[in-house]
Amino acid sequence: MLRGNFKVGRVFGIPIEINVSWILILVLVTWTVADGYFGGENFQHLSELQRWLLGAAAAFLLFGSILLHELMHSVVAVKNGLPVRKITLFILGGVAQMSEEPRSPIVEFKMAIAGPVASFIMSAVFFGIFVLLQGLSGELMQMTVGAALFLYLGLINFMILVFNMVPGFPLDGGRVLRSIIWHYTGNVTKATYITSRIGKGFAIVLIVLGLFSLFTGNPVGGIWFVFIGFFLQQAADSGYYQVLMRKGLEGHFVHEVMQPGVVTIEADTPIGTAVHDYFMRFRFNSFPVLENGKLVGMLTTHDLKTVPREEWDVGTVRNIMETEPVAHALSPNENAYGALMKIAQDGMGRLPVVEDGTVIGIVSNRDIMKLLKFKMDIG
Ligand SMILES: [Zn+2]
Predict the structure, then answer these.
(1) Which residues contact 75 (CB under 8 A, 6 or more apart)?
(2) Ligand 1 mean position to 117 CA, how many Å?
(3) Residue 178 in contact with residue 192, Cβ under 8 Å?
(4) Cα separation, 317 vs 338, whole angstroms
(5) What are the residues whose beta carbons fall under 8 Å from the beta carbon of 191, sequence distance 6 or more?
């Protein structure tokens, strides 16, 4: 995903983030509505400014619609004990990021259907307002400005609903279908396999349609479809692998995969010493940092890059280490799949294992993948 997220607030305690790529959607929607939708003959009485304001209003309400869709997923997830880390709106819509996958088909069903239900309700409400406004105006042939705006919003929410209900994983409809197959077969791997295949098929259809419109005079829509298609295809694959990994790691724990005898750095070590005596010597990408025997952070090659060379002998490891990994430190009896997810989220490549406040080992994603590969090799 593109980098550059900024926080815009919190709803129900869930941080809401907007990716910079979302600004492109805002501009695109504002422009299409102002210039295309309200640019026709029926709305010639509108000034340029009024049309752009209507465009901005539509974009803003679209933002609210997508946010509400994601919020509904999130609220149901939280109610069922699945923590939601944040909601991110990006170029292809929105995503509620969970740290765990649902543990039962019933929970998955409720969670997946919640978003489309929200979109359905919004669509119905906006269509309702449209009918009401249009009815009051008494004119059937010419639409009022307000009615036109709500018709647009009703349509766009309906489109969001239809698109998301396509039964291919990881779309909402695919998750609904997966939960149903999972419920009746008891086999989540098989359910994910089937629905991610449908998801990939749908992705290919989108790419082909996109390429077709690209060369038949609709470049913007074409690029859009191709873009969404590629994204979906990738998501369908990674969703399936994730289930395979989760299944493969079931019943395995951190203490089985961790490397004991971990090399740690003292917090007051000069940066230059850390580079020469640790990074160059052991060639790990990250090291746990200790102070009085307690874990206080992690030092990564990335942190080193942030310091100019002439400051290597002035600063100490404490000044540049990252402290968040302390909270994410693993415990020896933690599930190996959960550990893999934590390592991926942290982006450190590895995380220390702590027992009774002491670092007793370290686990890298490679250690966990090795176990998986070994299990696959022996069937
Ligand atoms: Zn959804």
Answers:
(1) 12, 114
(2) 9
(3) yes
(4) 29
(5) 105, 177, 178, 179, 181, 182, 185
C-alpha to C-alpha distance for 169 and 175, rounded to whole angstroms? 6
Identify the bridge partners of residue 97 per DSSP, sorted by sequence position: 86
Centroid of ligand 1 to alpha carbon of 66 (angstroms): 9
Nearest-CA neighbor of 299 among 319, 314, 281, 277? 319
Which of 243, 157, 232, 239 has the alpha carbon at shortest distance from 199? 232
Reported confidence tier of residue 328, pLDDT bands at 50, 70, 90: confident
Q: Is 331 helix (H, G, I), strand (E, B) or coil?
A: coil
How big, in percent rounded to 5, are the helix, strand and coil portions of the chain?
A: 60, 15, 20
- Confidence band of 323 (pLDDT split at 50, 70, 90): confident
pLDDT tens digit string along 216-273?
Answer: 888 877 888 898 899 899 989 888 888 888 888 888 999 999 988 889 999 999 999 9
What is the per-residue pLDDT across 99-140, written as a single tens digit (0 to 9) for each?
777 889 999 999 999 999 999 999 999 999 998 888 766 665
Tell me if 200 sits within 8 A of 233, measured CB to CB: yes
How much distance in Å is there from the Cα of 231 to the middle of ligand 1?
15
Q: 119 CA distance to ligand 1 centroid (A)?
A: 9
CA 10 to centroid of ligand 1, rounded, Å: 19
Model confidence, pTM: 0.76
Distance 346 CA to ligand 1 centre (A): 25
Q: What's the 112 CA to ligand 1 centre distance in angstroms? A: 7
- Among the listed residues 275, 336, 269, 260, the one whose alpha carbon sits nearest the alpha carbon of residue 297: 269
Nearest CA among 243, 256, 237 for reference residue 100: 243
Phi, psi of 281 (to 5 degrees): -80, -50
Give the distance (Å) from ligand 1 centre to CA of residue 145.
30
CA of 202 to the centre of ligand 1 (A): 16
How close is the Cα of 26 to the center of ligand 1, in Å? 19
Parallel, antiparallel, or unpaired for β 93-98 and 265-266? unpaired
Structure tokens at 374: 């070994």
Interacting residues of 211 by C-beta distance below 8 A, sequence separation 6+: 222, 226
**Is residue 216 helix, strand or coil?**
coil
Assigned CATH topology for domain 254-377: CBS-domain (3.10.580)
**In this structure, what token pair is assigned to residue 183?**
């419920």
